Each structure stands twice: as structure tokens, then as C-alpha cells.
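WARN retry 2 of 3 for item q-0093 after timeout on previous attempt; input resubmitted unchanged.
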Amino acid sequence: MKKLLLILTMLFSLSLFGQSQPKYLSSESIKRAINTGVVVVEFGAKFAKSYSEWDKLEDCNYYRVDIENYPELKEKYKIRSVPTIILFYNGNIEEKWRANIMLELDVEVEEIQEEIERLLSSRF
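OK item q-0093 returned
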């Protein structure tokens, strides 16, 4: 019985902490990543809170870019506040959401998902 409880506890712990984190992109990897259909990229920095609801998005790939490590990407994509989320479709910028003065995103995950669904449905 103790072994069964131990196994169940371990499985439950893995399900809570086993969720993968988004991959980080670099100057070298971003071009390839954003050209793969619907892609959401969060541009952020260590001093700003990351977008926490990324794992609720469906039908897209989600990545992060640390603009402190890649300031050239900050310039290229005109990142003026962090976090900033950009929705790409096959390399083209389709939508951009910027943080407010408090470094918080005012966008809800449902709004981002609606844009993803709109993009996918309009491409048929």
C-alpha cells in the first residue's frame, strides 16, 4: 500500500511540474522558427514578469526571446516595452500586443487564441 501511495504521489508531482517551458529563440534560430505556420513569440527580459498563460494557447508554437541577450532582435521587431507578444504567420507579423506602463500585458489568452483561430480559418 505504501508503494502504491508513493507511486501515485510521484506521478502527481510529475504532472504538476512536468509541463514543458517555452523554448528560447536566438538571433540565429528565430527566422527558422517564425516561418513554421502560426507562431507566438514573447519578447521579454529578466526584470519583467513573463506571460503566464502561454500553455493555454492551441494550434501554435510558443517561444520566448530574452531581449537582454539579443538586443538586435529588440531593434528588428521594434520592441518598446516588455513583455511584448507578436503573432507570426509564416514569418509575417499579424498582431502585436505590448505591455502597459506597469510592464503588464492587458491581453487575455482568449483574445490571442481568437486571433490564432482567425488566422487559421482565413487561410483556407
